């Protein structure tokens, strides 16, 4: 497997601090969380993007995946509101263009939501149409979308691995696959095997984090059991650490150290 930390918990710092730390760590790639002020996809001039690419290369790193902010920002592919839905598509087209420029093969995308007092089928229809449009765009750009479900408190569209599998089947594009996040998975009372059984070779990425999007070992998930289950299913793809809890904001470097320490203690990945 290929592992990479994400810079979500470095949002209070320049992106260079994150790159400096990863370069000194056992990791050689990153999952680039795209959010202002580090990488504002709404308004990020080409000159800044060129500088960012040079910085990443100067630190001897590659970009495994990009994770555009699409939960806090007004981004929603499933909404009945045409303006929001159309602007969300344009936002992700910019993300896909940015990924192509940074030689990044994958862009994460989370389901949006339909109005909770409206039929779920409406949100599902708009989600499918939006994702199909973006998948076609990805096919032209040589980039792949990583589709993630969300909690029932966040969305009424994609909530389980079966939902992801059904959506992928309806879209039928090689440019979009599913992924699993340990936090979302456990909240939905699913297992690693559920994802492999339902998605098969369409499982294309993993967010390996403890409860509440914390460092492995900082929560109460059986992370070693999760890792062994992933290995036992023969997965050899990409894995990133989406660490979002605010406890890491004041000392983000320590979180990278703790991730590496957990990996060394519980896996053979760094031998």
How far apart the termini lie comes to 13 Å
Name the shape in a single word: globular
How many H/I helices?
9
Main sheet: strands, sense, barrel: 6 strands, parallel
Write the H/E string, N to C. Answer: EHEHEHEHEHEHHEHEH
State Rg: 18 Å
Which percent band covers the strand fraction?
15-25%
Percent of residues in helices:
40-55%
Count of extended strands? 8
Query: Unreliable segments (pLDDT under 50, ≥5 consecutive)?
Result: none
Question: What does this 3D model show about the protein?
Answer:
It is a single chain. This protein is an alpha/beta fold and 271 residues long. Helices cover 42% and strands 15% of the residues. The protein has helices at 15-23, 46-58, 82-101, 120-141, 161-171, 182-187, 192-199, 223-232, 252-266; strands at residues 2-5, 29-34, 62-68, 106-110, 144-148, 176-181, 203-207, 238-241. The strands form two sheets. It has a six-stranded parallel beta sheet. Helix 3 runs parallel beside helix 4 and helix 5 runs parallel beside helix 7 (192-199). The two termini are 13 Å apart.
């Amino acid at each position: 497997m290929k592992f990479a930390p994400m810079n979500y918990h470095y949002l209070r710092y320049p992106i260079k601090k994150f790159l400096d730390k990863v370069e000194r760590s056992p990791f050689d790639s990153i999952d680039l969380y795209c959010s202002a002020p580090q990488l504002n996809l709404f308004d990020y001039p080409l000159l800044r993007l060129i500088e960012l690419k040079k910085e990443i290369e100067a630190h001897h790193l590659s970009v495994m995946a990009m994770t555009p902010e699409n939960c806090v920002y007004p981004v929603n592919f499933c909404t009945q509101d045409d303006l929001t839905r159309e602007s969300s598509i344009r936002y992700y087209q910019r993300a896909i263009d940015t990924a192509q420029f940074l030689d990044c093969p994958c862009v994460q995308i989370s389901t949006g939501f339909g109005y909770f007092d409206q039929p779920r089928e409406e949100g599902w229809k708009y989600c499918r149409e939006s994702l199909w449009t973006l998948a076609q765009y990805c096919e032209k750009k040589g980039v792949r979308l990583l589709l993630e479900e969300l909690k029932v408190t966040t969305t009424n569209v994609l909530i389980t691995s079966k939902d992801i599998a059904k959506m992928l089947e309806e879209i039928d594009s090689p440019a979009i696959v599913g992924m699993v996040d340990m936090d979302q998975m456990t909240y939905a009372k699913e297992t690693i095997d559920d994802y492999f059984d339902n998605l098969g070779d369409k499982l294309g990425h993993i967010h390996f984090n403890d409860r509440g999007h914390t460092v492995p070992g900082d929560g109460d998930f059986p992370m070693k059991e999760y890792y062994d289950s992933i290995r036992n299913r023969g997965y050899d793809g990409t894995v990133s650490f989406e660490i979002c809890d605010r406890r890491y904001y004041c000392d983000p470097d320590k979180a990278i150290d703790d991730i590496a320490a957990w990996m060394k203690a519980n896996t053979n990945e760094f031998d």
